[in-house]
Amino acid sequence: MQLDRWACAGVALLLAACASTHLRSEWRDAQDAAGPVRKMAVFVAAQDSRVCRFAEDQLALNLSARNRVDARAGNRLGLGADVSTPALRDKLSREGFDGALLARLVSRDTSTQYHPPQTNWVGGWGGWGPGYRSFYSYYPYAYTTPGYTTLTTRVVVEVLLYRLPEGKMVWNAVTETVDPRSSAELVEGLEGVVDDSLRKQGLLLPRS
After folding, report:
1. N or C: which end of the chain has fewer CB within 10 A?
2. pTM confidence score
């Protein structure tokens, strides 16, 4: 049936939908001229320690895999995420780190939107389409989609890059991810945006 084909197409489009991550804002220190970071400690500030460890591991792994940078998860180093602490900066510097990346959750909001029912008309049969027929013969080719409600989740994350050993912030970005289906998808989208931005700003080496 024509209606079944339209319904299946709609389901396919819904299943194909995925999360998207984009930059809301970005700042770069115009005075910084130290060049690309070569060894980076990655920290994630989150209330749930399991989420924190997972996000740090995945973010560091993805950055290392896609770039010429040695990225290490902060939890693997046994360190806190407060780069303002001189002892932390000194320890990282002694181990060869010249940069620290910090990501923190700013907000997670879910909104609801109602979509009312809609009547649709299935189009034509050659040159003598349904417009040439009477209402009674045309009407069976109309169908109505029921009303439905959609939920949209927006996750806002702030990401900051610090130079070591100074602990000076040289780059900052605010990202927004729409409808992440998992923590892994959220981190993957975040890493992609951060990766692109840092390379464009000269803070990561060009990919080989």
Report:
1. C
2. 0.74
CB of 117 within 8 A of CB of 141?
A: no
Q: Which amino acid is at 183?
A: S
- Using alpha carbons only, how large is the chain's radius of gyration in Å? 25
Cα–Cα separations (whole angstroms), residue 40 to 68, 118, 133: 11, 53, 70
Q: Which helix (H) or strand (E) holds 13?
A: helix 2-16
Q: Is the peptide bond before 117 cis (omega within 30 degrees of 0)?
A: no
Q: How many CB atoms lie within 10 A of CB 91?
A: 17
The pLDDT tens digits along the chain (208 residues) read 433 333 333 333 333 346 689 999 999 999 999 999 999 999 998 888 888 899 999 999 999 988 889 999 988 887 766 666 777 888 888 999 999 999 998 988 888 888 788 776 665 544 445 555 555 555 556 667 787 787 889 999 999 999 998 889 999 999 999 988 888 898 889 999 999 999 999 999 888 6
Beta strands at 99-115 and 142-145: parallel, antiparallel or unpaired: unpaired
Strand partners, 115: 148
Task: List Cα–Cα distances, 191 to 34, 61, 105, 117, 182, in angstroms.
Answer: 22, 10, 14, 39, 14
Residue type, 59: L
Tokens of 150: 């959609």
Cβ–Cβ under 8 Å, residues 38 and 70 = yes
β-bridge pairing 99-115 and 39-45: parallel
Our measurement of the distance from residue 112's CA atom to the centroid of its chain's CA atoms, rounded to an integer in Å, reads: 20
